[in-house]
Amino acid sequence: MYGAELIGALRRAAERRPAELPSAGQPRAAVPKQATLEFFGVGGERMRAAGCDTVVDSKDLAVVGITEIVSHLPKILRLYRHLIAEADRRRPDLAIVIDSPAFNWRVARQMKRRGIPTVYYVAPQFWAWRQGRVRLIRDYIDKALVIFPFEEQFYRERGVDAMFVGHPLAELPHPTVERGDYAAQFHLDHTKPWIALMPGSRVKEVRMNLPTILEAAGQLGSAYEFLLPVAPTLDPSFLPSLMGQGKITLVPDALPALWHSRAGIVASGTATVEAAMMNTPFVMVYRVSPLTYLLGKPRVKVPRFAMVNLIAGEEVVPELVQQDFTAEKVVAVVKEILPDGPARDRMLEGLARVKARLRAPQAGSGAVQHPADRAADIILALVPKL
Fold first, then answer.
1. 3-class state of residue 153 by DSSP
2. Which of 128, 221, 262, 375 could form a disulfide with 193 if both were Cys (CB 3.0 to 4.6 A apart)?
3. Phi, psi of 325 (to 5 degrees)
């Protein structure tokens, strides 16, 4: 999602510039006088639709957990080598790496060795754990564009040229589809409250999170409609095999499902920010393998797991992680935030504060600039004139 938005923003920024520019992309784009850009790199369907030649499919890199990565290392290494070989063949003028630190810091290192300027968009969350790895960003990245307000200071204090551009989700418009039309499209009962179920975007985390989420849905019962958005990183045929006999409606997009849902059960990650942007009260849940949790927990440097809580600096949404993530506890929280009342009001107020903090700084004209557009202007400014 972030990459596709950035491609569009880079094209718009290039068209606005009066002078001719060299290439910029992830990691390549060529800009002739018509200000057209060419991109290649890692991506999925949205990146391809935006015009990126995806020489590596992001689905093949979607691995969660310390122990889980080990078995996938040969495949990941093969894809990494293929990407670097393509960079050598195409000789990009600029590289942009997006999120995925375990993979991308190695890409950035190779770009540095080749003298290719490199930007990190959606910088790694090294403030949360393994803070010593900040040196990787300092050594190999020319500019870090961060999407959480506290990250700029964290990185700058450690010698990284970082700038907060705002979170790409903060300017999301609310879906325009009416509730009745949406209900008709997916055969939902519009008279019932709806609950969004978001177990994650990767196969491993869905396997770990979905069974308990479905158990909670079963306990909540037929008084509700349950919507499960299918992440674009998942094969659509994968989810039905895990769902059993309960009535769960699979939908293609998360935002309309969240917008029209009364509450959500949301796995830790970007989906929690999406829920906040859609003003949907939710409970955050997450589970990894026992060994991954045992190895990873001592390294965590932050007091909370949910991104909305970290941004707010307080608990806005309840966190049910590992052994605390039970169907009974999920049901108790959901029943508390479903009806109008103090608990729901407090959460909605907290989510509104989070959204305000994620907005991009105002442009020089005073207008609010979309984070991707702000990032694009900064990126193209790094490219020397022809």
1. helix
2. 262
3. -85, 85
Alpha-carbon span 297 to 294, nearest angstrom: 6
What span, in angstroms and rounded, lies between the C-alpha atoms of 133 and 105?
Answer: 10
Paired tokens of 378: 């900064």
Q: Which two tokens stand for residue 195?
A: 């609950």
Q: What are phi and psi of 87, to 5 degrees?
A: -65, -40
Q: Matching CATH topology for 2-171+359-381 and 179-358?
A: yes
Q: What is the pLDDT of residues 142-183, one digit of tens each?
A: 999 999 988 999 999 999 999 999 998 888 889 999 999 999
Q: In Å, what is the CA distance from 308 to each residue of 147, 265, 281, 360?
A: 13, 14, 11, 16
Pick the CATH number of 2-171+359-381 from 3.40.50, 1.10.10, 1.10.3470, 3.40.1440: 3.40.50
Distance CA 212, CA 205 (A): 12
Distance between CA atoms of residues 193 and 222, nearest Å: 10
Closest to 280 in 3D by CA, of 252, 246, 239, 308: 308
Report H helices in 114-202. Answer: 134-140, 151-156, 179-186
What burial letters (b/e) apply to 155-191, b meaning 16+ CB within 10 Å? beebebebbbbbbbbbbbeebeeeeeebbeeeebeee
- In terms of Cα–Cα distance, which of 240, 236, 237 is closest to 252? 236
pLDDT at 287: 92
Q: Which residues contact 338 (CB under 8 A, 6 or more apart)?
A: 193, 262, 263, 344
The torsion angles phi and psi of 207, rounded to 5 degrees, stand at -60, -35
Residue with tokens 């979309």: 370
pLDDT digits (tens, 9 = 90+) for 281-293: 999 999 987 777 6
* Model confidence pLDDT, tens digit, residues 30-55: 444 445 789 999 998 899 999 999 99
Tokens coding 142: 């020319």
Domain boundaries, the chain: 2-171+359-381, 179-358
Q: Which residues, in sequence order, are bridge partners of residue 226?
A: 195
Please tell me the CATH code under which domain 179-358 is placed: 3.40.50.2000
- How many other CB atoms sit within 10 Å of the CB of residue 86? 17
Rounded CA gap, 255 and 227, in Å? 11
Would you give the end-to-end CA distance of the chain in angstroms?
Answer: 30
